[in-house]
Amino acid sequence: MKSLVTLFKSLFYHAGLNHENMQGTGFYYLLKDAAKRNGMEIDEKCLESQRKYFNTHPFLVNFILGMWLTEYKNGSDPETFKKAYSSAFGALGDSFFWHSLRPFSFVFAAITGTFDPFLGVMVYLLTFNLFHLTFLFTGYSLGMELGRDVIVWFNRIGFNKWPEHFDLISVFFLGVFLSYMFKTGAEISVDIFFIAAGYLAMGLILAKKLDITLGLMINLILSGIIFFQLGV
Amino acid sequence: MKKIIFRVDDRLIHGQVIEGWVKYYKIHRIMVVSDRIAGDSLQRMIYQSALPSGCTLEIMNVEQFISSFEKLKAVKDYTLVLMESVEDLARCTDLIDNDVYVNIGCVACREHKVEVSNTVFLDLDEIEQVCSIRDTVEVYIHKVPWEPSVEIRNFSKLLKGGL
């Protein structure tokens, strides 16, 4: 139940974002509330200091919240680890949630959206929020249980490799989706198929070696030419 | 872009660093220079765990970094050197020459600090230290590579005015 309440409250945590203390106000709000529900007395000065600068990924904040309470209860210094975890989770969260999970959810939404647009929107929301809410829900109890060692759990699940794996799956299904669109949208001969596959490979090489925007631009221009030639 | 990047960012390894600098310039080598973290094995592990695969992280204190800098200059790949404070950067002033790109990414707001940009807040001592580094090379405020960098101009007028 505590995890569920923390999950609900943490949905509002990001509302206090500002460029002076970033998410400090939100963390103070979460901490004060969680301490009260756990029957913990936190020194007033220490609690006030939580309003100071704090910035992490908002979906992973509950891990830090749980860790902070456990370390405080054990009489150690939670501030050192709060700072280290806020930075590390900022990096891990940005890589996974913003740069991998969003395109991943989009690919599946696009695939289902071709059959039913409403279903596509629902698939996007469900896929993205499945991970978002699961991490917010489990973060608090795992942070409380593991304290400063919460990073061990992230290492156990190999979380820093998730963006790579999710990107691979996204690219694979994007290929399947584009092939399907091509097949249903135009008459495709073997020659055209290999030209299309060739320019896709070229775009990927350009994106990898030079610049992702340049790779995408060249692919879009070539796609336009091919579609124009095919009369799509 | 110069191959050696000195960046002052009090968050050290963070989303902007990984998704911005590391992926944009395909940096495989990151160095964190901090006396505070160098001696703490758990904090080292936390920062290590935040890296994408294929990236190596070296964590050392300022003295170790200064003594090993000559070896770093011989390496041809991009190297991102992250420092926690302007004070640490000032301690490395002798290492800075035209081969080094110096940028300040984020120094959080604290009491008695002046807002230099929306992510950089400096106090009087830090401004003086930045001014002294500026005598050797340009210092920029540069959040992420695809955003324009802002060169820090001389703060002398600001300093004379007593902030």
UniProtKB/TrEMBL annotation, chain A:
<keyword id="KW-0812">Transmembrane</keyword>
<feature type="transmembrane region" description="Helical">
    <location>
        <begin position="214"/>
        <end position="231"/>
    </location>
</feature>
<dbReference type="GO" id="GO:0009401">
    <property type="term" value="P:phosphoenolpyruvate-dependent sugar phosphotransferase system"/>
</dbReference>
<dbReference type="Pfam" id="PF03613">
    <property type="entry name" value="EIID-AGA"/>
</dbReference>
<keyword id="KW-0472">Membrane</keyword>
<feature type="transmembrane region" description="Helical">
    <location>
        <begin position="188"/>
        <end position="207"/>
    </location>
</feature>
<dbReference type="InterPro" id="IPR004704">
    <property type="entry name" value="PTS_IID_man"/>
</dbReference>
<keyword id="KW-1133">Transmembrane helix</keyword>
<dbReference type="GO" id="GO:0016020">
    <property type="term" value="C:membrane"/>
</dbReference>
<protein>
    <submittedName>
        <fullName>PTS mannose transporter subunit IID</fullName>
    </submittedName>
</protein>
TrEMBL record, chain B:
<dbReference type="Pfam" id="PF03830">
    <property type="entry name" value="PTSIIB_sorb"/>
</dbReference>
<dbReference type="GO" id="GO:0008982">
    <property type="term" value="F:protein-N(PI)-phosphohistidine-sugar phosphotransferase activity"/>
</dbReference>
<dbReference type="GO" id="GO:0009401">
    <property type="term" value="P:phosphoenolpyruvate-dependent sugar phosphotransferase system"/>
</dbReference>
<feature type="domain" description="PTS EIIB type-4">
    <location>
        <begin position="1"/>
        <end position="163"/>
    </location>
</feature>
<keyword id="KW-0598">Phosphotransferase system</keyword>
<protein>
    <submittedName>
        <fullName>PTS mannose/fructose/sorbose transporter subunit IIB</fullName>
    </submittedName>
</protein>
<keyword id="KW-0808">Transferase</keyword>
<keyword id="KW-0813">Transport</keyword>
<keyword id="KW-0762">Sugar transport</keyword>
<keyword id="KW-0418">Kinase</keyword>
<keyword id="KW-0963">Cytoplasm</keyword>
<dbReference type="InterPro" id="IPR004720">
    <property type="entry name" value="PTS_IIB_sorbose-sp"/>
</dbReference>
<dbReference type="GO" id="GO:0016301">
    <property type="term" value="F:kinase activity"/>
</dbReference>
<dbReference type="GO" id="GO:0005737">
    <property type="term" value="C:cytoplasm"/>
</dbReference>
<dbReference type="InterPro" id="IPR036667">
    <property type="entry name" value="PTS_IIB_sorbose-sp_sf"/>
</dbReference>
